[in-house]
C-alpha cells in the first residue's frame, strides 16, 4: 500500500477511541487532547473516506453500518501493532521461588534490591507459605526448604546455611539486668515461642536441665512474629541467627544469653534437575548460595 492511500493515523486513533466510548469527550480524555480536536479529526477522516462513520445524537454517538465495520477492522489492526511491538521487546523471565514466610521477610526481602540490581533481566515471584509447594504442579522454579537435606532423583539440593539458634531481645528489656542471662534468671521474662517450639531444647543446652522456670510464654505461628515481638520489647525470641544478624549488628536486638545452639536442621536451596529455565534458575541459585549481605 502506498503511503498516500493511508488515512491520517491521528484521525484513525481519534475514530477508534470515539467508537469505543461513543463519546468525543471521553475519547479526548483518553488521548489527552481537546474534545474539539477529536471531533475535527473524525470529521476529516469522514471527509477523506467520503462517508459518515457516526450519527451525531444529542448526548452520544451512534456508529453507522460502515463505521461499525471500520471500527472492528481498525481495532484488529491496532492489536496487531501492539503484538508486533511487544514481540520486539525481550520480556523478563519470571521465576517463582517458594520460601517460608519468615525466610521471606527476614532473609530474602532485605536482599532483593541487590539481586534486582545485579539481574535486572530476571523477575522473581515470591511464594511465601509454610506449605511445601511442588515444582511442576505449582509452577515453582526454586525453593528454600527447612529441615533435613531434601533428597530425590529429580532434585538438586545445596546447603544455604545451618540453623544456629540464638535468644534475642530488645536492649531495653535487659535494662538494669546483668547480661548475659542464665537459665536460672528467667523469672519475670516472657519467652516468645514459634511453631517449632525449640525453647525446651535451648534451655537444656543452656543449663543442662529441662526447666523453663517461672517464665511466662507467648506463642506465635511464625518465627517472624516472635522476632517482631522481641523488637518491640515484649520478650525473648528464639530464632536462627541468620534471621536476626542485621538487627544484632544494628543494636536493635541483643543476644540475651551469649550462647547459641547448633541445630540438626538447616536451610537448603532446592531446584529441579531439569528446570524450565536453566540459565535463569542457575543465576538465582548461585546468588542465593553466595549468601549476599543486606
UniProtKB/TrEMBL annotation:
Coiled-coil intervals, chain numbering: none
Task: Name all HTH lysR-type domain ranges.
Answer: 7-64
InterPro entries reported in the protein's UniProt record = LysR-type_TF_proteobact-type (IPR058163), LysR_HTH_N (IPR000847), LysR_subst-bd (IPR005119), WH-like_DNA-bd_sf (IPR036388), WH_DNA-bd_sf (IPR036390)
Q: What superkingdom does the record give?
A: Bacteria
Tell me the keywords, alphabetical order. DNA-binding, Transcription, Transcription regulation
The record's listing under CDD domains reads: PBP2_GcdR_TrpI_HvrB_AmpR_like
Q: Which family does it belong to?
A: Belongs to the LysR transcriptional regulatory family.
Indicate what this protein is called per its UniProt record: LysR substrate-binding domain-containing protein
What is the source species? Mesorhizobium retamae
